[in-house]
Amino acid sequence: MVVELVAVGTEILLGNIVNTNAAYLSEKCAGLGLSCYYQSVVGDNEARLLETIKNAVGRSDIVILSGGLGPTEDDLTKETAAKVLGKELFLDENIKAQIQEYFAKRGTKPTDNNWKQAMIPEGAIAVENNNGTAPGIIMEQNGKHIILLPGPPNELIPMFEKSIMPYLKALQPGVIYSKTVKVCGIGESKAETMVQDMIDAQTNPTIATYAKTGEVYLRVTAAADTEKEAKLLIKPVVKQLKDRFGNAVYTTEEEVTLEQAVVELLKKHNLTVATAESCTGGMVAARLVNVPGVSESLMVGYITYADKAKHKLLGVKKSLLKKKGAVSAEVAKEMAKGAAAFSKADVTIATTGIAGPDGGSEKKPVGLVYIACNVKGKVKVKECHFSGNRMKIRESTVANALILMRECILEYEEELMKARKAKD
Amino acid sequence: MVVELVAVGTEILLGNIVNTNAAYLSEKCAGLGLSCYYQSVVGDNEARLLETIKNAVGRSDIVILSGGLGPTEDDLTKETAAKVLGKELFLDENIKAQIQEYFAKRGTKPTDNNWKQAMIPEGAIAVENNNGTAPGIIMEQNGKHIILLPGPPNELIPMFEKSIMPYLKALQPGVIYSKTVKVCGIGESKAETMVQDMIDAQTNPTIATYAKTGEVYLRVTAAADTEKEAKLLIKPVVKQLKDRFGNAVYTTEEEVTLEQAVVELLKKHNLTVATAESCTGGMVAARLVNVPGVSESLMVGYITYADKAKHKLLGVKKSLLKKKGAVSAEVAKEMAKGAAAFSKADVTIATTGIAGPDGGSEKKPVGLVYIACNVKGKVKVKECHFSGNRMKIRESTVANALILMRECILEYEEELMKARKAKD
Fold first, then answer.
1. Which among B14, B210, B307 has the least Cβ separation from residue A27?
2. Which residues contact A335 (CB under 8 A, 6 or more apart)?
């Protein structure tokens, strides 16, 4: 089936906000096995909205609209979508009660125009909104489906996951099931080459690759009559991918991020961690702090952007800084060792590099970065050459710092196992 | 004039990447006084691309397409756009030479399919690409303009600023000129209320508000025959806005960010800075490190996510941590004071809060954050209640930390001036 996405909102047309809903919905729909050929954005203007919805309904099976469900007169999505299907609006007492309850919980009262949000097209399904007052709407007519969602992502995402995904799943003959093999430390084109034969030969399941900074996601999607059958189809393909990519696979769980995988590895071995950051200025620690409950592992972070701080906080010798420069393998190594000495953390990670736009030279160009990781006294240094602007170089550094940490902890794990075996 | 944006790329339809080009181009076009009624995304499929371009050319004066200019057979944007206008493609020797030079600089050789990128529709203007091999293309026919840009933002943005903006400016009768008054520490709805009378009465210039985390941008746009006249029209409105918002205005320069304004204030008064972060885990320092050349000011950053680190690195008393809890005004204050004591920095900023999803209680719910700023011994603590997920709460904390720093340094500035006056 073909799905089409329409975002409604002048703020997107003005460039005030980025249409992240489209990326979210597209990825979810692709995961459900739906094809998406068009996305569009249109403002809160009846004539243009009418044209856009008619066009979309004409060429796609499912049209998902987001935004324009607010209580003001400007909000026209529901009224216009109902017009396209020739449906009238009626007051839905259930939704009215939900809105009343929503306001009562917050100790406030709805305004008169809030009741506009309780008006539902005839025959439509109203979808409860746990995070706002605009209900979602599902309409169906002659095999065409129009789904209306509130615009704010914190309302749209939970509603989509709770109510819309099951609806879309039920529309399809059989079941679509996906699993993502997440790989780090291998570039997208190399990863693609490594699975090209599988992609060329694929029918069901299919494999799609998605590039993230420092990571590649390999999504395996199968269609079958039941979820059990789909899972059976996927299993050997996931196994094959895991065999090919080996240690580069950090998870096959949808929600697990790279930083989470690293934190789980730390916890598994009861390792504490400290960061020592120059060019990333706190971004490595911030990625680790993305993981709730990291306080058990993260002892401390040192941000030593200035040379003085590298000397004072991490004990990097002034003579070394002078001789080799702050951006050098030697200084990165000393930063990691210094962080370990001062924090007593088991694992330390250090970054130093030239993020630009200035400060580059022929010998040390913008994008040159050294990352050092120390695990219980064993230090590994990586020289990297990144491209892009200041932010892109720093983001690449952070991703590669996490990847190096993972690599070093895995080596430590291997040695532990060897030692255990030798003991037996 | 009406502009329409079309992004071409299957990776956007799959949700692999977010269409940030659309937000960038929309904002720039709005600044040029162009109206944008539609944005769309379509894949690398000739029939659908043809339909989309025809539709866009039919209803808009200017169609800007991005993506699909690569060297492979999949890349169809140029060929399809030329087809819509009935133009044939010819080899452009200039562009061929530029591509040759691009590869020579990198010590590599173009592949055969790179010459596809030197093929230009008859009568079209080829626009040099300083960051890649795909030239931009401008075509014009019967008052309709089609502009083709490469998809990667690091190629699209410089090309748009250097070559496309002047072209679009020249299309318009007269000149459109904008200036942005950037305000911090005032919510969007309050800011809107404060200028509602000006917005209601406006004809030329117009005022539009854009909300960012912790900030509001007020963009003043004037249309006139010459840039000089437009600037004259804008000047009193900018002055009026500055009068109304007073100290909340941190810049009227397009490129200046909040962190940059803070770093400039630090430099102005020769103040050094250190950060002490708990819930933000390095994000405040990372924002400061966004500013090139911050190493003169940023002495050090302490990431003290764990209570132990707050005690060891910042000297926060264990008894205080136990009595008041890590998330308290008192601990925030001690963190800022401790950072000052250990780093000797003039300004220190501390954050501690509950970012969730767990760890909240009735007394201290998720979203409760304390921020403390110390300027030469004078400490100010701010209690905040943020909503949203873990990342949103942390981003709001970072923005408010910068805002508090700015506020405290401005107070210090005022006192300095008072002291100087008293001396005179």
1. B14
2. A276, A278, A304, A310, A314, A316, A350, A352, A372
Could you give the C-alpha distances from B339 to A18, A137, A305, in angstroms and in order?
Answer: 37, 53, 16
> Which pLDDT score, from 0 to 100, does residue A211 have?
76
Range in A69-78, A86-95, A116-125, A305-314 with the lowest mean pLDDT: A69-78
Position A107 pLDDT exceeds 80: no
CA distance B125 to B104: 24
Contact residues on chain A for B40, CB-CB shorter than 8 A:
38-41
User: For the whole prediction, is pTM greater than 0.80?
Assistant: yes
Amino acid at B377: G
Contact A78, A92 (CB under 8 A): no
Nearest CA in chain A to B22: A15
**Are B14 and A25 an interchain contact pair (Cβ–Cβ within 8 Å)?**
no
CB < 8 Å to B357, chain A:
292
CA of B35 vs chain A CAs: smallest distance (Å):
9
* Any B CB within 8 A of A16 CB: yes
Q: What are phi and psi for residue A300, nearest 5 degrees?
A: -170, 155
Q: Which residue did the predictor score with more confidence, A183 or B108?
A: A183
Topology of domain A175-251 in CATH is: Alpha-Beta Plaits (3.30.70)
**Structure tokens belonging to residue A305:** 């952007």
Picking from A39, A48, A285, the nearest residue to B41 by CB comes out as A39
Q: Where is average pLDDT lowest: A62-66, A71-75, B267-271, B412-416?
A: A71-75
Rounded-to-integer distance, Cα B272 and Cα B294, Å: 10
CA angle B407, B299, A348 (to 5 degrees): 120
| Partner-chain residue, chosen from A302, A306, A394, that has the shortest CB–CB distance to B295 | A306
β-pairing, A368-375 vs A347-353, is antiparallel
Q: How far apart are CA A302 and CA A335, in angstroms?
A: 10
pLDDT band at A17 (very low <50, low <70, confident <90, very high): confident
Closest chain A residue by Cα to residue B305: A295
ipTM field: 0.82
Distance from the Cα of residue B303 to its chain's centroid:
26
Where are the CATH 3.90.950.20 domain residues in chain B?
258-423
> Which contiguous run of DSSP H or E holds residue A91?
strand A89-91
Task: Grade residue A180 by pLDDT with cuts at 50, 70 and 90.
Answer: very high
Look at residues B194, B208, B67, B196 and name the one whose alpha carbon lies nearest to residue B132. B67
For the domain made up of A2-171, give the CATH fold.
Molybdenum Cofactor Biosythetic Enzyme; Chain A (3.40.980)
Looking at chain B from residue 346 to 365, which residues have their Cβ under 8 Å from any Cβ of chain A?
355-359
Give me the half-sphere count of Cα atoms (radius 13 Å) on the Cβ side of residue A225: 0
pLDDT, tens digit (0-9, with 9 covering 90-100), for B310-354? 999 999 999 999 999 999 999 999 999 999 999 999 999 999 999
DSSP, residue by residue, A338-363: HHHHHH--SEEEEEEE--SSS---SS
Taking the C-alpha atoms of residue A44 and residue A314, their distance in angstroms, rounded to an integer, is: 56
Domain with CATH 3.30.70.2860 in chain A: 175-251
Instruction: Check whether B209 has a pLDDT greater than 90.
Output: no
Q: What is the helix, strand, coil percentage profile of chain B, to 5?
A: 45, 25, 30
CATH class of A258-423: alpha beta
Q: What is the mean pLDDT of residues B197-206?
A: 89
pLDDT confidence band for A365 (50 / 70 / 90) = very high
pLDDT band at B175 (very low <50, low <70, confident <90, very high): confident
Where exactly does CATH 3.40.980.10 map onto chain B? 2-171
